Amino acid sequence: IILTSNLGSEFIQANKSEKLDERTKEKVLEIVKKSFRPEFVNRLDDIIVFDRLQKEEIKEIVKIQVNNLKNILKDKNLTFSITDKALEWLVDKGFDQEYGARPLKRAIQRYIQNPIANLILDMKDKKLDAIKIDVDGDQLVLNNKVFAIN
């Protein structure tokens, strides 16, 4: 069983260095020990303090979520491609240093899933089997049609 928590995240956020230092880890572990009974903490095999996610890691998370959407659409005989610029755009829109990667899923739904659904509805009389997602300026475009503005 793996448990996750945001206990001590304020110390991780306050740490400005690229990697967590030992003092920050100690502060986080102190909070864990103050927040849970000793009997519970003693049952944990290990406590791992994770560092903040970096932009490249966030981009990998976006790729995984986009691939999940690709698989869903593939079952409906619809494919899409997404440029690196569009992936970067999604990272910028969906990542928040304070909230981490959780808002990414909402950003993908807002900027990719919903526009694809609208495009499908707009194209109901025409055959649509491939969609290209790109960025033009500060706008996300699907098949050269603007769907999301900064």
Please tally the helical runs, counting DSSP H or I stretches of 4 or more residues: 6
End-to-end distance: 40 Å
Largest sheet: 4 strands, mixed
User: Helix content range of the residues, please?
Assistant: 40-55%
Query: Order of strands across the widest beta sheet?
Result: 1-2-3-4
CATH architecture designation of the largest domain: Orthogonal Bundle
Please tell me the overall pLDDT.
85
Overall number of domains: 2
Text of the CATH class of the largest domain: Mainly Alpha
Q: What is the general shape?
A: elongated
Q: What name is given to the CATH topology of the largest domain?
A: Helicase, Ruva Protein, domain 3
Element string (H = helix, E = strand): HHHHEHHEEE
Radius of gyration: 20 Å
Indicate the proportion of strand residues: 5-15%
Uncertain residue ranges: none
Coarse structural class: alpha+beta
* Number of beta strands: 4
What can you tell me about this protein's structure?
With 150 residues, the protein is of the alpha+beta class. It folds into two domains: 1-52, no CATH class; 55-149, Helicase, Ruva Protein, domain 3 (Orthogonal Bundle). 52% of the residues lie in helices and 13% in strands. It has helices at residues 9-14, 22-35, 38-43, 55-74, 84-94, 102-122, and strands at residues 79-82, 130-136, 139-142, 145-149. Strands 1-2-3-4 form a four-stranded mixed β-sheet. The chain is elongated, with a radius of gyration of 20 Å. The two termini are 40 Å apart.
